# Entry
Amino acid sequence: LSRRSLQGVPALGDVMGSELALALQFVAFLGVQAVLLGVCYAIVRRKWSQHTDPWNLADTLFSLVVFPVIAISAIAASIELHGSVESRWFGQTHLSYFCMMLYTSRTVLHMPVQFLVEMPRGQLVLMTVHHILTAACIMYGIVTRRCWFWGCFDTCCEVSTIFLTNLYVCKELTIRGKELKEVMPGWLYTINGVGLWLSFVIFRLVLFPAWLCIFFLDVSIVPGQTWDRVTPMERYVYPLVTVVLLALSTWWFVKITKGMLKALGRGKVVEQEKADAEVHEENC
# Structure
């Protein structure tokens, strides 16, 4: 697969002022999303004026729209660019550009929003570090026009965020004084919980190791076409951030598994088994 160019997006190597053009496009992505988030906030203030955390609910409603678009574009772009070493490291498509700009602008927008919602300090710090690392890596790829496949492939993990957002909606939205999860069919809520669990397994616990395997296979087999043509940022920081994402996802997966088991009505059984195991260890 030969290197693809983006019509309408100026090449940085050809136009000295292209950094400005990219900045303006980023601002456009950011501005559109800010307006949509503002609309969601206005809806929340009008329809759920008594909600104790309106910005969180507004962000959740906005996420219902943006994350499916991010996830679908990431998967499609990864499929477009996965075919060869050259395309994985230096390929460019309209869809991959759209995916990375949308994800980065969404991440940048979400950073100040985090300070408006009710969030434990530890989670706030963790999410801010996550946002800075991922946004910096993908934006670096946009500017250098390299490694777009790796950015989009990592972004496929946002499939799990679709189910997570559904979960938040079920808890945050109220109908006649009751949470949505209390009035919706129980089986539908359970299916979403199982979907969240499966998506975490496939699009995080499997995807991130696969990312690392493909990355280092390319480097080991054809270093002249990969390692020797990129910077230390791409050589070391990109895989390191992916390892961090894997570690975070593993930690989150434990909590999600407990939540899924609870949704299936098995939470008490698991807790009892854990307690029995602890007692057994103490007696040994």
User: Anything to note?
Assistant: The chain has eleven helices and two strands.
